Amino acid sequence: MTDATATDLTHAARSQWWDVWDQFRSHKGALIGAGFFLAIVLLVVLGPYLWPLDPTQTNIRSRNQGMSWAHPMGTDQLGRDIFARVIAGGRISMAVGLTAMGLSLLLGTLIGVLAGYFKRLDGLLMRLTDLFLALPLLPLLLVMVLLFREPLTAAFGVETGIFILIVAAIGITSWMQTARIVRGDVLALKEREFVLAARSIGTPPARIITRHILPNVLSPIMVSATLGIATAIITESALSFLGLGFPPDFPTWGRLLNDGVQYLQNYPGRAFWPGLAISLVVLSINYVGDGLRDALDPRLRGR
Questions:
Q1: Best exposed site among 153, 170, 173, 298 by fewest CB in 10 Å?
Q2: What's the pTM?
């Protein structure tokens, strides 16, 4: 390959990504959603360094206070600062969402590519996918938590063990949609001329998949990634709300929401603030996924 050809390919790739960015920023909802999501991520990551109050520190004299400059979201029944607890809970919820999304995406992409490219594996893997889709997910999650909670907490400690359990439970039960989407795209791509040409000259299947198949299914994978973060955060919040997630002294948005329900009539802010954080994150991620879907689809680019 000459230097001129390499330069042309580099400019073409750079131009393609500029086209994707131009299409993405033309989607106002996606741009606003990305701004909200980035702001929330920065808040939960940098918040503990900027906000001096300890989320676990109790002060009975300051309990059940309303909004003030000292406590922007008020305090709870033990005098703990709700703003500091929302920030700490956000770090856990976001970590669970991102890690579980990565596991789900890895499983879904692997199974989807194998089922779509290798015909002899298609029937087996798709029946496995149908089996997982037919299972009631919430009862399955509850059973997994009840079965593996004690062994994992005994092996890794309470916090790490429950984190591994929640991430594994969400990831194992949420890969099916990604697998079906990726399989459909791979079935169409493997009959395209450039894949047939690569196969005709003896290119190994692994190289065809990594060089030709995976780059062309990037769009549905990235969209599934954004939606997977939102699904994982909601699922973790639901488990914590039911009392099956992290322990009470380890705040997550779902746990904070659960703790605030019994004070809903007298102190509605305790449930409002973590519920608002969950809603804003999920809504912003959904808008980002919508924008990525439009930006990465060549048929919509330039409209």
A1: 298
A2: 0.81
Count the residues in the chain: 303
Of the candidates 189, 193, 180, the residue with the CA atom closest to the CA atom of residue 214: 189
Mean pLDDT, rounded, for 206-225: 82
What is the Cα–Cα distance from 275 to 48, expressed in whole angstroms?
A: 20
